[in-house]
Amino acid sequence: MAAGTIRYWAGARAAAGTHEEPYEGDTLGAVLDAAASAHGAELARVFTVATFLLDGSRSGRDAALADGVTIEVLPPFAGGSR
Amino acid sequence: MTAELAGVIRLLGVREEPLSVDEVFAAVADPGAGGIALFVGTVREQDGGRGVAGLGYSAHPSVLDDLRAVAEEVVAAHPVRALAAVHRVGDLAVGDLAVVVGVSCPHRGDAFAACRMLIDELKSRVPIWKHQVFDDGGDEWVGLP
Q1: Which residue from B57, B58, B143 is facing A79, i.e. has the nearest CB?
Q2: Any alpha helices (H) in B38-79, and if so which ranges?
Q3: pLDDT above 90 covers what percent of chain A?
Q4: What are the CA-CA distances from residue A1 to residues A35, A63, B132, B136 (Å)?
Q5: In this model, does residue B129 exceed pLDDT 80?
Q6: How far is B88 from chain A (nearest CA, A)?
Q7: C-alpha torsion A47→A50→A55→A60, nearest 10
Q8: Distance (Å) from the C-alpha of residue A52 to the closest C-alpha of chain B?
Q9: Residues of A with CB under 8 A from a CB of B
Q10: pLDDT tens, B69-120?
Q11: Rounded CA gap, A18 and A14, in Å?
């Protein structure tokens, strides 16, 4: 299994209760499922709308992980009504 | 970035210090400008019917790169003579300036269109998050379900 660091930003950080933590898993989806189980429904809700970066590149849940890859969880940006 | 873009994109910033409309206005001054459009976003006193006590903006470390990418697209899409955009981060109060952008063009129609594109693309694509605290004690991360 690959191991690395997952980093939570803004509302994801609030839902996870931490800015970053170590992960182990073979795919992004497996790591997200484990994190949602560990931290609860609020983080799971954030995951439904978040963007995920693997070493800075936008990736989907099927993406394979390699040792040392940093996962970043970015909630939707401030946006705002036009 | 080409030398031409470097000359047109005059000021990009994300900072904790209070913003200045005069700073952005001065940055987009250009002898080729016939119209200058400025947009100023401020902290509103209510959102969704709830009173806003204050809010915090935070940004991803890539924020300036993403802001530059948006600025370059605006310059490519409109006859822009000069462009500037500055966003505040940190804790803000009602009435504070959250974002100031400005564009100068030869004519006002293009200035309005370029300024509109700049603020709309900035808002949707630049990684800045907003956390609102309400006067009823609740709080919310804008954009989360």
Answers
A1: B143
A2: 63-77
A3: 93
A4: 16, 14, 39, 46
A5: yes
A6: 12
A7: 70
A8: 13
A9: 9-11, 14, 45-46, 48-49, 56, 72, 74-80, 82
A10: 999 999 999 999 999 999 999 999 999 999 999 999 999 999 999 999 999 9
A11: 7
- CA A37, A9, B68, B125 dihedral sign is positive
What CATH number matches the domain at B9-135, 2.40.40.20, 3.90.1170.40, 3.40.50.10540, 3.10.180.10?
Answer: 3.90.1170.40
| Local confidence band at B145 (pLDDT 50, 70, 90 cut-offs) | confident
**Exposure letters B112-129 (e unless 16+ CB within 10 A, then b):** bbbbbbbbbbbbeebbbb
Closest residue of chain A to B140, computed from CA coordinates: A11
Assign a CATH topology to domain A6-74.
Ubiquitin-like (UB roll) (3.10.20)
Q: With 90 as the cut, is the pLDDT of residue A81 above it?
A: no
Minimum Cα–Cα distance from B120: chain A residue:
A82
DSSP classification of residue B143: T
Q: Could you tell me the two tokens for B46?
A: 């209510």
- Summarised one tens digit per residue, pLDDT across range A9-51 is 999 999 999 999 999 999 999 999 999 999 999 999 999 999 9
